[in-house]
Amino acid sequence: MEATRANGCLRTAGGARLGLRPSQARRAGLAARVQARRTPLVSQRASGVAARSSSGKVVNAAVAAAPPAVSEEVIEKCINAIRFLAIDGVEAANSGHPGLPMGCAPMSYVLWNETMKHNPSNPKWINRDRFILSAGHGSMLVYSLLHLTGYNLPIEELQSFRQWGSKCAGHPENFVTEGVEVTTGPLGAGICNAVGFAMMEKHLAAKFNKPDCELIDNYTYCIMGDGCNMEGMSNEACSLAGHWGLGKLIAFYDDNSISIDGHTDISFTEDVSARYEALGWHVLHVENGNTDTDAIRKAIAEAKAVTDKPTLIKVTTIIGYGSPNKADSHDVHGAALGADEVAATRENLKWDLPPFEVPEEVYAAMKNSSIERGAAAEAEWNATLAAYTAKYPEEAAEFKKFYMDGEVPANWSDVLPTFTPEDSGVATRIHSQTMLNAVASAFPTFMGGSADLAPSNMTLMKAFGDFQKDTPAERNVRFGVREHGMGSIANGMALYGANIIPYCATFFIFTDYMRAAMRLAALSEIGTIFVMTHDSIGLGEDGPTHQPVEHLASFRCMPNIYTFRPADGNETAGAYKIAVESRKTPSIMVCSRQGLPNLEASSIDNVAKGAYTVYETNASPDVIVIGTGSEVAIALEGAKKVEGSGKSVRVISMPCWEIFDAQSDSYKESILPSSVTARVSIEAGSTFGWEKFVGAKGKSIGVDTFGASAPGPLLYEKFGITADAVAAACNEVM
After folding, report:
1. Which residue, among 220, 238, 130, 225, has the nearest Cα to 187 in the 3D structure?
2. Cβ–Cβ < 8 Å for 230, 268
3. Helix pair 99-109, 293-305: axis angle to 10 deg
């Protein structure tokens, strides 16, 4: 909904004025025709709907490139097949969002059946064009497209939409459905992922393409809606896309002006096109996305002609197009049409087939041709790869080994340094930087950066420059102050499908800005590495706005994510070894600002156990003390005070709860014997969850209030994170 529409009105045939919302007024003429009767497709195209460029140039749809050799009648059947598979799927489930697929079917047909380079027989082909449905609630759109173009998604799966075990989940899930590139649903996330995809294409093309042999050349297409544009994360990522000049990113903005609450003019009246122009995008407008496929084709051609900017194609549509009584209303947004309205829509669009039945000519035009074209495109690319290999064997070997096969070099972790107590103690954020640079030397696929905190997070790879518009082969990424967008872009980097190992960084407290992206990484089963420094009240004077308290506990609650809090250099190295090799589980590196001593018993291998003994008097302890990160040294000091009074002690470092939980029962019993109920934990964060390890008779030392502004050592004293507190707690529980 744009500000220029603020005074829309309409006259009836008799001249009476209708007081409509602006969004209603601008569509009422077309909507009335859709609801009353179906105007022939060809005659509506002949009206010459215009596409507007960012320069204000208006081009007539009549000059659009000719469509492929499929008749207008069959094209219309293909578009309606997309619509009715979506309608029928939502109706069968009595749950879902039919409106978006009904409105987006024409642009999706042109994109999937005429434009995209993809191979349904090999959804992971590395040089395929990518498609992301950022408006993931319209998931039946992508399921219909996957089915109709020949992916491994039989009609039975569509019939079981949103049911237990179906490959057609409520929102697209990359780990469930072949051909779904990313998991979307939280609005705005998909377009951020798309920026990560286009970024990787630009990076790989710059790294490997040669003047006489172009190995990487693919587009990223995305459909986003009003809600995606309302979410701030989309602006963060799209700002970077403009800054980086991602010319292979083409986003379709489904401009239907409807959200769950109703017409978007109740809350969203900005000029979206002007915003994207200001972000450095090339902007086009297809004024009739309901029927004018020629204008859609023309817009795509114009978008591809602009190579130094991403393109936003605003496509004005009617949500629920074809529904006589619910089109252009929120009624069609998030609920099944209902049997009567489905019947009326079938009659309106002249679709006389029963649910889930598709005409053979549609399969011939979409499935058969997509499979044939896709196989031919991949075969042609394989020939290009063979020629490239002959001419550039060294580059080809690297490309195949790391980017295609995702090979983990044997003994690669030998590049990670180890430490002894004689080595001077430094903050684990410094150790993290050492490990980042070591990993970068072993994996050319390792790439990332910080949210404008590189000097504090210590995340620069010293051997490489910055990924920028004119230097895209470099590997340090400057995300700026954009945590949420950063996290989702990093996820997109991983999901692009070239075995990229992305990392991103900020202060641990600012995971509050990007938690949704971190959760999606865990859900999507991708190994994004999140480097989080300034991990506790130990950061000191910045105070409670910057001091994490509840954050460790909250991430330990999240499924499929490793939360590492290393105590020294060896544990930091061990955490990075696991994180780099864990390609289906993301990792959080929770690192200190303050310096920490290197432990006698720490090692890279011990981190792989999640918890291990760093000190003990003997094999029969009277009390066990468990610590993480900066508190392990404090635990040791406190335990030795107790030992001095004649008691046997054991001190455990627990760098990763999740990994310890995954160990065998016998190993866990050897570390925390059930016979020893006198247990103490110490961690400069919330004590929530520690009862799992200390038991009902144990005691947890932590921080269960917000922090304060003061030097870090003083805060530890004031909050009781001390060796004396450990000794007192041990004496209390014994």
Report:
1. 225
2. yes
3. 60
Specify the amino acid at residue 278.
A
**What is the distance between the alpha carbons of residues 509 and 545, in angstroms, rounded to a whole number?**
8
Closest alpha carbon to 216 in 226, 202, 227, 229? 202
d(CA 81, CA 75): 10
Catalogue the active-site residues: 483
Dig out the tokens for 572 from the structure.
């930091």
DSSP 112-136: IIII----TT-TT-TT--EEEESSG
Strands (E), 65-211: 130-133
Question: What's the residue count for the chain?
Answer: 734
Alpha carbons 310 and 304: distance in angstroms, whole number: 9
pLDDT score at 69: 83
Token pair recorded at residue 663: 């160990």
CA 263 to chain centre: 28
Query: Residues 94, 95, 96, 98: what is their CA dihedral angle, to the nearest 10 degrees?
Result: 20
> Measured between alpha carbons, how far is 701 from 690 in angstroms, rounded to an integer?
9
- Complete edge-to-edge strand list for the sheet that includes strand 58-60: 58-60, 50-52, 282-286, 311-316, 249-255, 220-225, 130-133
Tokens encoding 174 = 């990359």
Dihedral sign from CA coordinates of 230, 231, 234, 235: positive
Contacts of 347 (CB under 8 A, 6+ apart): none
CB proximity list for 543: less than 8 A, separation 6 or greater: 707, 708, 709
Closest residue by Cα to residue 531 from 456, 475, 595, 481 = 456
Please, are residues 107 and 312 in contact by the beta-carbon 8 Å criterion? no
Contacting residues for 386 by C-beta, under 8 A, at least 6 apart: none
Distance CA 24, CA 22 (A): 5
* 67 DSSP 8-state letter: P
State the SS3 of 209-267: CECCECCCCCCEEEEEEHHHHHCHHHHHHHHHHHHHCCCCEEEEEEECCEECCEEHHHC
In the chain, what percentage of residues exceed pLDDT 90? 91
* pLDDT tens digits, one per residue of 352-390: 999 999 999 999 999 999 999 999 999 999 999 999 999
b/e per residue 258-290 (b: at least 16 CB within 10 A): bbeebbbbeebbeebbebbbebbbbbbbbbbbb
Mean pLDDT of 448-465: 97
Host H or E run for residue 492: helix 483-495
Q: 324-334 b/e with 16+ CB inside 10 Å = b?
A: bbbbbbbbbbb
- What is the Cα–Cα distance from 295 to 45, expressed in whole angstroms? 9
Q: Which residues contact 71 (CB under 8 A, 6 or more apart)?
A: none
- pTM value is 0.92
Please write the tens of the pLDDT for every residue from 330-351: 999 999 999 999 999 999 999 9
CB 133 within 8 A of CB 144: no
CA separation for the pair 564, 579 (Å, rounded): 9
CA proximity to 638, closest of 575, 545, 721, 532: 721
Say what the pLDDT of residue 68 is.
58
Residue 198 and residue 90: Cα distance in Å, rounded? 32
Angle at 643 between CA 639 and CA 644, to 5 degrees: 120
Whether 281 contacts 37, CB under 8 Å: no
Q: Dig out the tokens for 199 from the structure.
A: 């970024």
CA pair distance 1, 630, nearest whole angstrom:
52
